[in-house]
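Hi team, as promised in this morning's meeting, here are the two structures we talked about. I've kept the exact order from the run log so nobody has to guess. The first one is mostly here for context; it's the second one we should focus on when we meet again. Sequence first, then the predicted structure tokens.
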Amino acid sequence: MAIKKKKSIKTPSTKTNSKVKKATAKKAVKKVTKKATPKKPIKKIVAKKKVVKKSASLPTNKTGKKNTKKVIAKKAVAKKSRPSVTKKAVKKAVVKKTVAVKKTITPAKPKVEAKVKTTVASSPKAEVVASAEKFVKIGVKTKKQLVPVTPQPVIEVSNYPKNKIKTILISQPKPENDKNPYYDLSKKYNLIETFRQFIKIEGLPVKDFRTQRIDILEHKAVILTSRMAVDHYFRMCNEMRVTVPESMKYFCINEATAYYLQKYIQYRKRKIFFGHQTIQDLVDVIRKNREEKFLLPAADVQKEQICEFLDAIDIKYTKAVMYRTVSADLSDIKNLNDYDCLVFFTPAGINSLKHNFPNFKQGNTRIACFGAATANTLKKHGYRLDIYAPNPKNPSMSGALDEYIKEANKR
């Protein structure tokens, strides 16, 4: 029995000891791993921190020396790349910019003023241009640029008593259609109107035209102010045996004059430009073709407004006199005092009046004139001006007559 007890005691002791040994070994391994693993990364981190600190400060170790060399090299490279952007260079650049801005902006105003002063002092035409610019600034503008417009001169009209008007003589050819403002006036006030042209237009002979020494083919553009100008331009070309090239450019004062060119050329195959009623409507088109040399067919008595306008724009042109106005034969009119009002549109009409009726005394006969030149020639011959157009209220002669007759026929 004693032997069995010894065996039972020996077996469990050995097993327990082995288990205990194993457990203690595992615990020891765990402790070793726990102690070993955190220490290594901690040392590395500390070393890195030290290296960073040492690189920022003066180097003491070998590793620190290497890091400081790299940092110093980087700083030197950065300094070499920056020398262009220094304080002195920045100041110089700012000074250059300010000087450039001053050169481009500040001298612009005195230059314009100097031009105006010199032109005004140099020639009388320049005075017209300067006054035109002042007038334009009020509000006359085109799509692109300001148009130089000469202001209308002030014309004095007499204060003669306004008597009733029943008969009117208009110094124009009889209109072909009934659509005419003078027919409307006659219906409105029961007037008796007679149309009689005081002037006659004759073509200038070729011999007289050659004395002007004008070569038509040198000009690649033509300014046509009326149908009469169209007729005499092509007449002169035929008589001088000049073939008008297809590349010729036509600048017409209105649409009717442009369509009248169909009588002589094919309208679709030509370069034709036209305005509303005045030469000022063609400013933009003429300026685009300023390189061309323009020909202006005109009469011996031509309105100077067109020439002044072309001079103001600095356009190269040649005024060619191709027809002239002559006084018509008015022997069929016995007495001008039979008419209550006489209407004139050109200075040549006033000259014809003086030529055909040298002993005419105005008396109660009212005289209406269109345009400043016509009014001035009337006053030169010693006649009285009663109605004038264009005026601020009425730009047309029919409107000025309507206003005058309305007040005169009330009495």
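And here is the second protein, the one for discussion:
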Amino acid sequence: MQSFMKSSGVYFTSESVTEGHPDKLCDQVSDSILDSILDKDPMGRVACETAVTNGLVLVMGEITTDCYVDITAITRNVVKETGYIRPEYRFDHESCGVMVSIQEQSPDIGQGVTQSLEWRRGSRDELDKVGAGDQGMMVGFACNETPEYMPLPISLAHKLCAKLAQARKENVVPYLRPDGKAQVTVEYCYGEPKGVDAIVIAAQHDPDVPAEKIRDDVYEAVVRPVVPSHLLEEVYSRQRLFVNTTGSFVIGGPAADSGLTGRKLLVDTYGGFARIGGGAFSGKDPSKVDRSAAYIARYIAKNVVAAGLADRFEIQLSYAIGVANPLSMFVESFGSGKVPDEVLLALVQKHFDTRPAAIIQNLQLLRPIYRDTAAYGHFGRDGADFPWERTDKAEALRQDAGLG
């Protein structure tokens, strides 16, 4: 990243996928099951994964709860809402099989989450009581190149995919089908976006639609409304807009590719601009630090950048299963910090509590908000009810750093 900030011309690419992509379909099923449980039992423990293939959805994992939810009905409803509603898609909500294989959470794991190592050693701080649901490392990132403090390539890729889905749902491009992808290459000069160099779109469609029509319609209905004209330059005229480059994309979704919860971690996070943690997000209740600590890490990073303390900022947290306090905390401002990184680390440690119970409490994570995270990214989303996207700590950080 240091060389990236010092180079006069580099290209960086990120991709996103639509809600109809098989992996994202799985994420939405898993998170919808989680939401249904949290709505009835906020203390439920959920680690739910989904796999899809042609004609079949398999829901599996570990769930401990006092409530009942109809997993099969939830699954079919997600498949329907995602757009798989016609038999000619070779996968639809009425005819697909749904298999469920669920067991309770391991008691060995449960005891460490319910009573942390600190609690068992005598601490009576209530925020020490909950232990991390797993070991591992989680990463948060933010930068100031977009209003949402996200890297431009992944921001544009998400918006293109969301627009592709919107064009389908609103019949703006009526022949579109649910599956799709977008990939954006951005040219950077000394760490600043200079222009969009290339756009790749994969748009599933009905048969017998000419390739040129799809390309023109996607450009007019999807690309032009999303990509600012000053960045778009001459992508279209220079033939750097690539749409359905195999020539046809009729067979898609689970009929063409299997899907699995958690397989799109770069799509869920920062598009490859930052390092990633060791675990995926969807289908996991917030006692699993794979999810909740990734959210607090994003919250920290975004507030540091929003405070003007750095142009780019990354933080890594690490945990041990059954232990409340993180084992390590690492920060990196990639040479863009207005104060030294060791000062940034001290500010973070002072202003943010990264114990699981504190994360859950401060970010209000026991609510059924997770289906909305399962497509188009967990971070940088306008209008979403994601507390980790707040910048309410920025002013206090700025004042404490002496930059007020």
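Starting points for discussion:
Residues 136-146+264-399 form a domain with the GMP Synthetase; Chain A, domain 3 fold (CATH 3.30.300.10).
The chain has three domains: 2-17+151-252, 22-114, 136-146+264-399.
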